[in-house]
Amino acid sequence: MSDDIGDFNMSMRKFLKQVGVTSQQAIEDALRDAGDLEGREFKAKVVLTVEGLDVEHEVTGTIKGQG
Q: What is the pTM of this model?
């Protein structure tokens, strides 16, 4: 049973790390391509779904641009 929990935790952490790293890279690339964004704010939204489970989780926030 503890191996199942360990496998679950590792797979969850690996997935969330991938989401965080790749999302940050995508946002940084878009901000860099957009040019001077000092003083601007951008609304951001992430929608997480899990196939096979009745999960839909939404996270919203604001990202501040910089020059």
A: 0.80
